[in-house]
Write a structure and sequence with these properties.
By secondary structure, this protein is mostly helical. 76% of the residues lie in helices and 3% in strands. It contains nine helices and two strands; from the N terminus they run αααααααβααβ. Strands 1-2 form a two-stranded antiparallel sheet.
């Protein structure tokens, strides 16, 4: 029973904190206000969380780690697939299922990702978008590196990585409905995959 009460208090605090962060941003959020919204004392808050950043982490850390894990596994599987391909003409360009998978995870935790995008300044998460850009910039060329007769273009890889992440960010921020987000993101990602193939991998003269 005591454990249930403590769990409920923690849940009340994280839900109240999520609303506070969404309304006021990380810097403007007040622990006193969060406690009032949750109906608990500040002592209860400090029983569970050392400070505001730890409370913020409780909301965003697991969803963020989950998305990174999904991406890493996707890159691992694609690397295996690409190892058996000799040219870009053989690459499967339809990434609709992968797009749906990423959108599903993001929209399972959409509030957390909105916080990461809009309210993570002055936290350890403020560069999370750059981290995803770096993941793409590093992983996509590695997947394509085994194809004969092609060389990597650093500039185009960096540009395409930003473009891909920015496309997801735009959908996440502006489309609330999950199914609508999926419908919009599928052709966008497929278009971007074609861009990676046509622009990033430049034929050797």
């Amino acid at each position: 029973m005591k454990q249930d009460v403590e769990y409920n208090k923690r849940e009340l605090l994280t839900e109240a904190a999520k609303k506070e962060f969404l309304e006021k941003g990380y810097n403007g959020a007040s622990l006193r206000s969060i406690c009032a919204k949750a109906g608990v004392t500040t002592g209860a808050l400090y029983f569970f969380f050392e400070n505001k950043e730890q409370l913020f982490s409780a909301i965003v850390d697991e969803p963020l780690a989950g998305l990174k894990k999904l991406l890493s596994e996707h890159f691992r599987q694609d690397s295996e697939y690409m190892s058996g391909i000799a040219s870009t003409a053989e690459i499967e360009l339809d990434h609709s299922s992968e797009s749906d998978m990423f959108i599903d995870h993001i929209y399972d935790h959409r509030d957390s990702f909105i916080l990461l995008l809009n309210s993570s300044e002055n936290t350890v998460y403020e560069n999370c978008v750059d981290e995803f850009v770096e993941m793409l910039e590093r992983s996509v060329p590695m997947m394509m590196s085994g194809m004969k007769g092609y060389t990597h273009d650093d500039y185009m890889s960096h540009w395409m990585a930003h473009l891909t992440i920015d496309a997801f960010i735009n959908v996440i921020k502006h489309i609330e409905d999950r199914e609508e987000a999926k419908r919009r993101m599928r052709p966008i990602l497929n278009y971007l995959v074609k861009g990676w193939v046509e622009l990033v991998m430049i034929p050797v003269n």
